[in-house]
């Protein structure tokens, strides 16, 4: 049976929070910036726009959601329309390594759970692009996978096999160095246990009904093997992987 890419698979099961640290990490990240109705925000790899929708609903800020997958953007568009937020969120197809925007265009750039999927050179290029499109004094908010024990590096190939996409998380200090090298200052970071498929994390992120729905869908015959493989990895084999959220100022 062909495996699907991990985050696509979980979305199909009904999971709405597809970030390593879930709601807790994203909330911390948002608290590091000042969002107002005048803020111009770019969310790179917006996926289904869960974060963008919450921001637009709360702050009435103007957001461009960028993703290279047209199918994902189509689903996001339906969700945005259902939330009556088309005046605040605009979607655009594009690549993080060559952002289709002028320099100094945005007050805030958000990028969750994407840099981990790039190799080192691509990470560096993407972060340089984020720096370029931010206004002076603008802030970059990122959310990724990390680890604090160097021995965990041996698990990274297992992680790639489990979610069916090659990933390259970095050691905590290496993430910080990456942003510093690109020219960012005033860097603050927080790390913690991944909650993507932990029972407590799912209850916090999806609620009881959402969690039950995900599990029931995951245990259907066509989904069972991949769901159990992912559940076991994130709760046993890879339980020492962490999330990291970083706020960096241009």
Helical run tally: 9
Number of strands: 8
Structural class, from secondary structure content? alpha/beta
Beta strand % = 15-25%
Biggest sheet record:
8 strands, mixed
Gap from first CA to last CA: 46 Å
What is the chains' assembly state? single chain
Helix percent reads 40-55%
Topology pattern, helix = H, strand = E: HHEHEHEEHEHEHEHHE
Summarize the model shown.
This protein is of the alpha/beta class. It has 9 helices and 8 strands.
Walkthrough of the structure:
The protein has 250 residues and is an alpha/beta fold. The chain contains nine helices and eight strands. Strands 1, 2, 3, 4, 5, 6, 7 and 8 form an eight-stranded mixed beta sheet that branches. Helix 6 (156-163) links the parallel strand 5 (134-147) and strand 6. Helix 6 runs antiparallel to helix 9. The radius of gyration is 17 Å and the shape is globular. The termini are far apart.
Layout of SSEs?
Blueprint: H1 6-13, H2 22-31, E1 40-44, H3 50-59, E2 62-67, H4 70-82, E3 89-93, E4 106-112, H5 120-133, E5 134-147, H6 156-163, E6 170-171, H7 172-181, E7 185-193, H8 199-218, H9 224-237, E8 242-249
Parallel strand pairs: 1-2, 1-4, 2-3, 4-5, 5-6
Antiparallel strand pairs: 5-8, 7-8
Keywords:
250 residues; alpha/beta; 8-stranded mixed beta sheet; 43% helix; 22% strand
